[in-house]
Amino acid sequence: MQQPNLLFIMSDDHASHAMSCYGSRINQTPNLDRIANEGMRFDNCFCTNSICTPSRASILTGTYNHINGVTTLSTPMDNCLATFPKLLQDAGYQTAVYGKWHLGEGERHKPTGFDDWAVIPGQGYYHNPTFIFPGEDGGIKRTVPGYATDVITDMCLDFLDNRDPDKPFCLLYHHKAPHRPWYSDEKHAGLFLDEDIPEPDTLYDTYENRAKAASVAAMRVGVHMSREDVKCEMPDDMEEMALRKWAYQRYIKEYLRVVQSMDDNIGRVLDYLKEAGLEENTIVVYTSDQGFFLGDHGWYDKRFMYEESLRMPFILRYPREVQAGSINQDIVLNVDFAPLFLDLAGVPIPADMQGRSFRSLLQGSTPPDWREAMYYRYWMNEAHHNVAAHYGIRTLKYKLIYYYYDGCGQPGTDQPFHCAGKREIASLTGMEPEWELFDLEKDPQEMHNVVHDPAYAGVFCELRDALHHLQAEVGDARYCKDVG
Ligand code: CA
After folding, report:
1. H-only helix segments in 276-329
2. pLDDT tens digits along 255-283
3. Ligand 1 centroid vs 106 CA: distance in angstroms?
4. End-to-end alpha-carbon separation of the chain, Å?
5. φ, ψ of residue 5 in degrees (nearest 5)
6. What are the structural domains of the chain?
7. 0.85 exceeded by the pTM?
8. What protein residues have CB closer than 5 angstroms to ion ligand 1?
9. Closest by CA position to 467, among listed 402, 416, 420, 422
10. Ligand 1 centre and the CA of 288: distance in Å?
11. d(CA 299, ligand 1 centre) in Å
12. pLDDT tens sequence across 48-107
């Protein structure tokens, strides 16, 4: 039996609550739903650091950011590291990546382990994007006319058409969409024009009963947005909640239009696989590098360990091993993807990959020693949306977060953040570390920090010990003031 093909579709900042297969209240994604309906949906897939470059490095290498060195947006990935595409290529796979890379540029950071590639430098553009193609000195830049989501899809279809049919393929189909600032294509520009998109329950959050980190973050809808986010001049005479209401409709519609184009294009690739008779032997995965706040807590962007940002969509179709329409609730992580893909391909998993293959979960069986808690760390501090550095633990029932307000010398941190909005931004420098504890069963929206509630004193101690245990297990150092 030939090794399975792998089509790994990843988007940028697509939250699972904007996918109808995850019960979205705001849009329909019929093509993504095909993958879920014909495969397995994972409801507790989490990133270990909710920010683009670091999460991508964890996905490729199967390691945490303190190990792969990609802790912030200013730490490009060293392309000498072992990655799953390299290992698959060594095992005889034909490999390619098209679209978003965001792991750095130049000889040291360009894609390696791929027979062919074309990637967007940095964030790139939605319209007439520039790509870097293989060539000397890190590659050759060239503009490709068209809409990024269409162009990336065309590149993938070309690869599939021209591949060597005697080899299995590993194709990384990586969308730029739906990263900010959002620009839809002509086809979807008229979507949602005459309707109001339902608001999330927590759009008007006032950040009471939380650590100070929530109220000082500069990612509030409207308040901390620019002209580019709402596609017109920002009104300067609205009070904050009215501005949130107005700006939410402006930005979420454009976000959803960008998502809709992606869904259409993914449908084209799924159709291709069907027509080419490749469905049975191709593993199709859809995920996003992390989640996103869709007005939840009054925010856009990500970074925080809160649910909407922490959770990644993860759906997988593989008719040979996965029952159609199945759902899994176990905790899986971005560091598990590389081991899983290698396992499914029958390629040995290097001992220094920290994630664990969840192939048995795909087959409907959870090993008795499967993890019941996950470790998270956001390393950036102050820079970019004024979010505090923090780490934490999430179990199926609780979440404990420690904000330590220190960049710990990591590149790209501790830089005062200036946003486009006119509101003053509070400095995080000198703030005292804080704990946040949420009872996810009673408070799934994470509105009440119960860390000071005597009823949770025992839970707090247990979780803090478990957090320190996880840190020791993955080889990360705890912050000096986090004692106990
Ligand atoms: Ca991202």
Report:
1. 307-310
2. 999 999 999 999 999 999 999 999 999 99
3. 21
4. 54
5. -80, 155
6. 5-194+210-367 (3.40.720.10)
7. yes
8. 12-13, 52, 289
9. 402
10. 7
11. 15
12. 999 999 999 999 999 999 999 999 999 999 999 999 999 999 999 999 999 999 999 999
